[in-house]
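Office hours follow-up: a student asked to see two folded examples consecutively, so here they are.
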Amino acid sequence: MSPMLEIRHLRLVRAIAEEGGPTRAAARLHLTQSAVSHQLAELEGRLGVALFTRVRRQLKLTPAGARLLDAARTMLVDLARVERDLQYAGSRRNEVFRITVECFTTYHWLPPVLSALAADHPDVDVRIVLEARREPVAALLRGDLELAIVSSPVRDRALVVEPLFDDEWTVIVPPSHPLAARPYVTAVELGQEKLLAHDAPRSDVERLRELIASERAPMPLAARVPLTDTLVELAKAGLGVGLVSRWAVAPAIARGEVVGRRLTREGLPERWTAVYRRDAAARFPLARFVELLRAPSSLLAPSRARKRRPRS
């Protein structure tokens, strides 16, 4: 008798739930939309229970679907870990330690961390996963990452959250820009500029909208720039003003290439954290990696040294 649940079913349910529907799930699974819909109908027929219900053109999990999704996430991560363990045991190759930074492509702090880590763990091969920067928490839960540095809130109990340092949003402009002479930039002033920004987390976007609404300021025309270095170069050339986390562009500010100014008189603080799966701590030197991120030799340190302000 064949099993009712197969690995492909677990991946199917996870993809539909995380992507919000069969269209994007099909792209993620490299299937057609009709194949995804057919497999879902087949699975629900096998189980005799609905896993999703349609609400306003979106598929939402039923209680049975939510239970299966939780199981799928756990089992798929466990399976991926077993596969990696067996591959490592068979080939004796270095352990791959995958990391990402939420939103930014900023890794100026990484060389001193890698040098110190290699001294204690020469068998660890650290790799940057840029494509995970938009949804790092989801990537961690899928088992696609070992560690993410994030500023958005994380509440999943399967993850460990280690505070790193306090930071703040900053507006970057060339030294010749009129805003460079200001002690801070108001929401009204920001609304009069072309804004250069990354694809920010939803919490940051909502926070910016609330600020602009509270000041009755115009919403700035925004251009999405995926690479941090490119954003700095565009701001330096006067092609827009950048809105970034200060530590991400700290080297460019220190070199005088751009000027950083606080957004609003009080500033908009944020806290960066290191996040990893609770069940991965035994396999990877996560505690050591986090310790190195906090060390004075890391370029994260200047941000941490500034006076802390409570998050709003």
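And the second, which I mentioned at the end of office hours:
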Amino acid sequence: MAERRDALLVTHTGRKDSTEHARTVAADLLAAGFGVRVVEEEAEDLDLPGVTPVCGPEAAAGTEIVFALGGDGTFLRAAELARPYGAPLLGINLGRVGFLAEAEIHDLDQAVRNVVAREYTVDERLTLDVTAELGEIELARSWALNEVSVEKNARERMLELLVDVDGRPLSRYGCDGVVCATPTGSTAYAFSAGGPVVWPEVEALLLVPISAHALFSRPLVTAPTSTFVITVEPYTTGALLCCDGRRTFDLPPGARVTVRRGELPVRVVRLRPRPFTDRLVAKFELPVVGWRGQA
């Protein structure tokens, strides 16, 4: 009896081209003998015979691979489904930058062939676990692949935050917020806040203050075993906890947010060896030929 192989497709059905590419991938996988699942709310738009609509957090249970067809937002949504089951996640960039994706749209057919032939490797990406508490009351519990941020919810306000690292107070900030990021997330929100780019293979945590009114407001890179505690000062209102820009929670005055390395990584598919330097140059269009355009 042939081994059953299942794949889950996650895509951005609001875009016509994404829907068409998802149909192509599904048809190729079905022809190769895969069972193909699609997220239930996307099934009607995809209108694909032979696929199985699935819903809920167990959508990726038992799958060999999860395809994310879209931009980084689609990848992060697919990661929520793949992570609990250790399912490898393959990103196909149909968006603009698509920093998290392994392949571009012109690689689509080859990517499917590689998956069918099992010609790929899997990297494990460090994640963050986060809890928010007020005294003995747990306000929120979540995780992130890119970053956890504590930030203000209104332009006219400033937050007053106390940051502890490894159980010791580091600094108080009057700021727009603080970003705690992974190396994977170093090219996302943390980068726009002035943080460093960290190669994905590096095991570390990042802490980046946002627009801090403080003499010392440099971004920090700590050990992967470090723990960050961000306390919203008792007289400060209008704070939000945000995980990967997808899961948001209100933080009352006095709330304490604890961020540490996640227990579960996200497993990311690699189709071919490619230095991170090349990805950085391509995605940011860095001028490697010289600033005057000379070789």
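Two things to take away from it. The longest helix spans residues 16-31. The mean pLDDT is 90.
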